[in-house]
Amino acid sequence: MVERASSNLRMERGEESSRLPDGTVVEKSVKLTIGSDLSVVREVRDLILKEVDQFGFDRQSHFAIQLALEEAMINAMKHGNQLDPKKRVHIEFKISAKQLEVIVEDEGPGFERAGVPDPTLDENIEKCSGRGILLIEAYMNSVHWSRGGRRLHMIKKNEPDVHS
């Protein structure tokens, strides 16, 4: 299925759902392919966050997921694909009441995670970039890089807020 994004960009989309006999969706899987255009980040983020809300994730999880999604997609477009309009970003997510699993993959040359400078070190504190990966790793329950750094696999568990 191909769906036209409101930003006039084309977004390829595939979707599957597991349902109970009464029609209740218990798990949903979506695959998206988007261009390396920063203007579409909000639209994809909002699509995923709508599902996050429907599956009952709390406000803190919503915030964590929003931040991690934005950082992952922007990094894939900017650092991975170098904002090359011919290169795509592939996004897959699977959501249930238990967790959200997201894969973001770019078509760039990749990178070595260990080679990214620690933004908390004194020599990096005043740099304007370099915090996205740190934020993703801090806010998600599981983060794994593969395919030479081109593929990011993140998991956020739906853990009810015990402070509410």
Short description:
By secondary structure, the chain is of the alpha+beta class.
What report would you give on this structure?
It is built from three helices and seven strands, in the order E-E-E-H-H-E-E-H-E-E. It is globular, with a radius of gyration of 16 Å. Helices cover 27% and strands 32% of the residues. It has a seven-stranded antiparallel beta sheet, covered by helices on one side. Helix 1 (41-54) runs antiparallel to helix 2 (59-80) and helix 2 packs antiparallel against helix 3 (132-139).
Tally of extended strands?
Answer: 7
What portion of residues is helical? 25-40%
Structural class: alpha+beta
Please identify, by name, the CATH architecture. 2-Layer Sandwich
Would you identify the CATH H-level superfamily? Histidine kinase-like ATPase, C-terminal domain
Q: Number of domains in the coordinates?
A: 1
- As laid out across the biggest beta sheet, the strand order is 1-2-3-4-5-7-6
Cα distance spanning the termini: 40 Å
Oligomer: single chain
Main beta sheet: strand number and arrangement? 7 strands, antiparallel
Q: What count of helical segments does DSSP give?
A: 3
The residue ranges in which pLDDT falls below 50 over 5 or more consecutive positions are: 1-9
Based on the model shown, name its key terms.
7 strands, Heat Shock Protein 90, 164 residues, single chain, alpha+beta, disordered N terminus, globular, 7-stranded antiparallel beta sheet
